[in-house]
Amino acid sequence: GAVEHLTPFLIGSVFSSLSITHVATGGTSYHFLSSEGKVYVGGDSNQLGLGDLTVRTTPTLLGLAFSTMAPVTMSTRGGVLALGADGYVYAWGLNTQGELGVGSTQSPRLTP
Predict the structure, then answer these.
(1) Distance between CA atoms of 109 and 106, rounded to whole angstroms?
(2) Over the stretch 58-86, which tens digit does the pLDDT of each residue have?
């Protein structure tokens, strides 16, 4: 089952060799950006951008096509907006009220 931590603790050894430059959290997921431009995600499957509905309990690398994305913000409803290295803004996650700005309320959008 779930473990509740009431004090800060180190998250997994996956980050021991990485320099994390940005952290974005919201709802029930998290996104870390490394100095190499790779994005690691975890938590609620609706918000990860991995293309499936599997909850990730350890940090997972977001696909190579989007490995240089920098998480900019996450809405409180669970949508994610991120700035790609190509200068475009990508969106994924929950979208029940059209909060992703993609022209529909299809929800969830499982990939950027």
Answers:
(1) 7
(2) 888 887 545 455 444 555 567 777 777 77
**In the 3-class helix/strand/coil scheme, how is 28-54 assigned residue by residue?**
CEEEEEECCCCEEEEECHHHCCCCCCC
Q: Tell me the three state secondary structure of residue 66.
A: helix
The token duo for 104 is: 């529909």
Neighbouring-strand partners of residue 96:
none
Q: Which of 26, 24, 41, 2 is nearest to 94 (CA)?
A: 26
Question: Is residue 42 packed enough to be buried (19+ CB in 10 Å), middle (13-18) or exposed (0-12)?
Answer: buried
Distance CA 94, CA 29 (A): 12
